[in-house]
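Hi R.,

As promised on Friday, here is the backbone we talked about, encoded as structure tokens. Could you run it through your design pipeline when you get a chance and send me back a sequence?
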């Protein structure tokens, strides 16, 4: 799947359908809410136009909001993730020179770098998502536990998906 005209729409559809039809309907004790769909945003080309990344993140989040009947929660958290993504990329991967259409993937960043990159962005996304959802700090510790557990499970899920679907040459 080298052609980006096929790769990115296919990735978008696969992740959004998996999230909307499977993961959103799983009950994991009320504390864990995996959001593997954000892998689409994480794997966009590093040098892609930042406004386009934010637009794609908004559309991705809006699609998940449609599936989950959560008006704007995922869209807002996804746009925040897209907004801070360049900062996180430059913090973790400053010495790595990414080509025009290269992604921050396992092959380019290594497993440790990819896990750090993913976990930080997932943590930011989930913090925004759950605080947007509650809009208060009365259940701060419950929300904090949700953020941490969901971030760990989401990062693990993303790592599994990336390892299963990465091509080895």
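Update: got your reply. Pasting your designed sequence below so it's all in one thread:
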């Amino acid at each position: 799947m080298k052609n980006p005209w096929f790769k990115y729409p296919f990735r978008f559809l696969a992740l959004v359908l998996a999230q909307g039809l499977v993961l959103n309907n799983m009950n994991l004790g009320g504390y864990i809410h995996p959001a593997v769909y954000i892998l689409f945003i994480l794997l966009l080309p590093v040098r892609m136009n930042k406004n386009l990344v934010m637009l794609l993140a908004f559309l991705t989040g809006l699609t998940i909001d449609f599936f989950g009947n959560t008006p704007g929660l995922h869209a807002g958290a996804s746009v925040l993730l897209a907004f801070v993504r360049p900062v996180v990329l430059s913090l973790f991967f400053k010495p790595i020179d990414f080509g025009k259409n290269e992604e921050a993937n396992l092959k380019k960043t290594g497993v440790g770098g990819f896990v750090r990159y993913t976990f930080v962005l997932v943590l930011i996304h989930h913090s925004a998502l759950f605080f947007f959802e509650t809009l208060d700090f009365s259940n701060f510790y419950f929300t904090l536990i949700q953020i941490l557990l969901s971030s760990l499970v989401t990062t693990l899920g993303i790592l599994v998906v990336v390892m299963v679907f990465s091509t080895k040459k």
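One thing I noticed while checking it: The helical segments are 4-22, 39-42, 50-68, 73-93, 106-134, 140-165.

Thanks again,
M.
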